[in-house]
Every structure is written in C-alpha cells, then in structure tokens.
Specification:
This protein is of the alpha/beta class and about 450 residues long. It has 17 helices and 13 strands. The C terminus is likely disordered.
Length: about 450
C-alpha cells in the first residue's frame, strides 16, 4: 500500500542536512523525491565524514529513498531542462543563500509562472533579509546566534567550575558572575529541527492546496526554527517582561523565579554506568523517596510542591546521587520502575543497536549496502496504519537516475545525448540498489 504522500513529486535542490533530511522524510512517506545536484561532487556531504566504499555515513542517512539526477543549472541547456521538470512537480525545495535562486533563474516567481500550483520552500540560514542574511551558515553558527550554545554551557557543574576558576585567578572572566562559558551541543540539532519544520510546513501547504489555496511560497530560516524550538523551556526565565516602572524583572514582586528546566535534570553516576532520574510530580518524588528508603522526605514541607523541590534541587540531588552510586545502573532502573519513577540508563552510541526497547521497536535496521557493506540505519519513526511509510532504497549514486527521470519527463534520447555531450549531465550511474526492505 502506498505511503500518505504517494503521487506527490518533489524537486530537491538542497544540500548538507537541513534540506535533504526534510525531503527524505517526504520520500519515506511516499513522495517521489528527485534530488538535483551539480556535476563534479554534488551534495557536499557525499565526501564528508566517515566512509567506506565511497559511501558517506551522513549522506546515506539523510538521502535515502530519493532518485538522484545531475543538471548543471549554470548552463542554459541545464536551466532549460530543469524548467521543463518544474510543471511535473508538486514541491520544490532549495536552501541556497538568499538571492542566489533568483540569480540562477529558479526563484519563486519564475517557478510559479511555470507551475502556479507549486509549493516552493526556501530554507535560509539567518533569513531572507537583514544584517546577517548573506552569511554562509552551518549548524554551530545557529547554535551560537540562537542562544542554544550559551544555554548548553550553563549546567550547574559548569557554573561551579567557572566560579572556581575565577576565584583561582588567571585570565579575566568574560562571563557575568554565576555564568559559565558557552558550549556546543554535540549534534547538528539546528539543522535537524529546521528539517522537521520544513517537512511539516510543506505538508501543511500541500493540505492547503487540496483545499483550494493553490501553490505558495513557504519560507523559513534556521535561526527562526531554532529559536522557536527551544523557546518553551530554555526561555522560561526570559519570557516575562518587567512591569512598567521597573527596570529589572528580578524586582517584580509578582514573578516567581525558578531554576532553568534543564537544571532539574542531572546525569547520575551508578556503580557501573550512568542513569537519569526524573521526578517532577509529587507522586514521582514520593516514589524516589520510598525507593531509596527516605519516605519522610516526601512529607518535608520544603519539598511538598514542584516549586519547592526546584528551589531545593541541589539538596535533593545530593542524596539521590549517593543512593544511586551504591547500585548498578540496571538495579537503579529496576528499583525505580517498581515505584513508578521515570528513569533511563545512559546508552553509549555504540550500545544503541543492542538496547532492549530499541530492538523491540525495530528502530535500528541492519542492511547490506552494495558498496558500503553492512550498515546500521534508523527506520522512519512514524508508522502509518493505513498508508505505511518506509525506506525505498539506499541513498543513490551521483546522477544515478538522470536519464530515467528525464525520459519520464518526455525528453527523447537525442535531447538527453545532446545534454550529456554539452556537459550538462553528470556521469551515468549504476542501477538503483534497493534496501533490505525492497
């Protein structure tokens, strides 16, 4: 049975992760995604990072289930060929720097003139206009600009370390009292949340088109996606403005200030590994107290409310961590499970494929890549009862489907040969290689 986006065709002009991951989501929900790359290398992630047999792990993970073609859009015949594909498409996605698509002749106005029903998605770094719009962008830069890197650095442990270093002398601290230096999240989270935002926005625009809205331009920036993504938790101490007449919100008598939400969560060391325990509700906190033999703490007035526990979080964590350190990670989780307390063992990345729940969910698949050999991959997380999604094939080779796609669009053999002779098309690829699931 076809996926929920069966019958939708997507022209994918994106590179790196923010765009390719979005279009892969569409592909694995049934859309026919055609990745359009320039000659030579193509997408910059093809040669990036850990590889085997010429297969890049990051490219393979963000470009499955697509067909890949090569067109040199800088040459008039290549641009003309692309323009002939646009009327066959439902969606076009690009993540060029602002203004580049217009200079290339593939901006929204030009494409909408060819296909008024086209959903055209532009992904920018900082935005279409403004002081930083023209900057080249990578995920860590958005982590910095969005405040995410600052927030990541403000764990209680890092703040204590910064305070100790300041007391010890040395270089003058750049941070305000009580602050620690920023740090990066060890994941390209801004790229990935932009991809999620783009995929959702595209499907919403397609739904609006079904209701008669026609095609439209969908614009988003990585900066906007990142700020919106982290606002509800990371900004809860920065959302309320001071009442009129007060210069500082800390002087507001009506403001109840608590530690940041992230300060509620702390990795604890067990005897053989690490665990995370979360006891936000009154019932969960009582469960922790009972599990660790301190039931009287649940009745302590200081800890009677979530607000009280947040304000006394260091005291609570100290005795929790002493109890956890005496037990193995599995023992801690088993004990807390008995008392209804949320907990999890911290998995190393190399342990993910062996996790009991991930194995039960069949989250991670082992497949044989024709050039990369045995590989692990994560399946699409959403499962549709009536319109199942799935992985169609491995990430395609550079230009693997060029002639196939052009022929489907009505290009005859003579025109295709002329395009190849002119250098507009890339090298002829091998046949598509299906994944283990077909």
């Amino acid at each position: 049975m076809p996926g929920p986006l069966d019958g939708i065709r997507v022209l994918d002009l994106t590179a790196i992760v923010s765009g390719p991951l979005a279009t892969m989501m569409l592909a694995e929900q049934g859309a026919d995604v055609i990745k359009v790359e320039p000659p030579t290398v193509g997408d910059l992630t093809r040669p990036m990072g850990t590889q085997r047999g010429g297969v890049s792990a990051i490219f393979a993970a963000a470009n499955r289930s697509k067909r890949c073609i090569v067109l040199d859009l800088s040459q008039p015949p290549g641009l003309e060929a692309f323009r002939d594909l646009v009327p066959t498409a439902d969606v076009l996605v690009q993540n060029f720097r602002p203004g580049a698509a217009e200079r290339m002749g593939i901006g929204y106005a030009a494409m909408a003139a060819l296909n008024p029903d086209l959903v055209y998605c532009s992904i920018a770094g900082f935005g279409r206009s403004g002081p930083h719009a023209g900057r080249r962008v990578y995920d860590p830069l958005i982590q910095a600009a969005s405040g995410m890197a600052w927030a990541q650095g403000q764990s209680p442990q890092r703040r204590m370390q910064a305070a100790s270093e300041a007391e010890a002398g040395g270089d003058a601290p750049l941070d305000r009292p009580g602050e620690a230096p920023p740090d990066l999240v060890r994941s390209i989270v801004c790229d990935k949340v932009t991809a999620l935002t783009a995929a959702q926005a595209i499907t919403a625009a397609l739904f609006a088109r079904e209701r008669g809205a026609g095609g439209q331009h969908v614009e988003l920036s990585m900066l906007d996606a990142a700020i919106a993504f982290h606002w509800c938790d990371m900004m809860w101490n920065h959302s309320f403005l001071p009442p009129r007449g007060l210069a500082d919100r800390d002087e507001d008598p009506g403001l109840t200030r608590t530690p940041d939400l992230a300060d509620m969560f702390r990795i604890s060391r067990a005897s053989d590994g690490y665990v995370l325990v979360v006891s936000g509700s009154d019932v969960e906190f009582r469960g922790v107290c009972n599990a660790f033999g301190r039931p009287e703490l649940a009745d302590d007035p200081r800890f009677a409310t979530l607000l009280g526990r947040m304000q006394a979080i260091d005291e609570i964590r100290d005795w929790e961590e002493r109890e956890i350190a005496r037990r193995s990670a599995d023992e801690v989780c088993a004990l807390l499970d008995e008392h209804g307390v949320p907990c999890a063992k911290v998995n190393r990345l190399a342990e993910l494929a062996g996790d009991d729940q991930a194995r039960h969910n069949e989250t991670i698949e082992r497949v044989e890549h024709p050039r990369g050999g045995a590989m692990l991959r994560a399946r699409p997380p959403a499962r549709f009862e009536k319109t199942p999604s799935g992985i169609r094939c491995h990430a395609a080779d550079h230009g693997e489907h060029t002639e196939e796609v052009l022929a489907e669009a009505g290009f005859d053999a003579e025109r295709i040969a002329a395009l190849r002779a002119a250098g507009v098309l890339g090298p002829t690829g091998a046949a598509a290689t299906p994944g283990a699931d077909g």
